[in-house]
Amino acid sequence: MNFLTAILTVLIGIVFLVRDLQLVRFWIEGATTSCCIAAKRRRYYQAREILHYLNFPSQDVARNAVEELSKSGYETSEKLSKQSTADAAKPWVVMGRKETVVNEKTVADMRMQFTEIAHRYHGGYDGWEAAVTP
Question: What's the CATH code of the domain at 47?
Fold first, then answer.
């Protein structure tokens, strides 16, 4: 029993280490985003369209993410990627669209939400883009 407990403890530690590394990556990318937004703050005081991209291994899990995003007020769409460069393990693309003011807080909150959804459904968060003009 002690041997199984030790192995289980090691496996749980590995899972948390991987998640912590993803959060560090998220924090670094968020800091870079905040610097870019702060430099262009004058242009980002009005609500504008923001698109977020997620990739999933199957249509079923993509639909789960779509349902969750719809409940959070996002307009969503899902499609099978036609690009040959798409990640073959995660070919289903989900796009979440929302109009909001772009600032450090809204971007950080949305990125965290999309990262958590991607993690929950074994997908990947592929970033965001915002309209240049409102």
Answer: 3.30.70.970
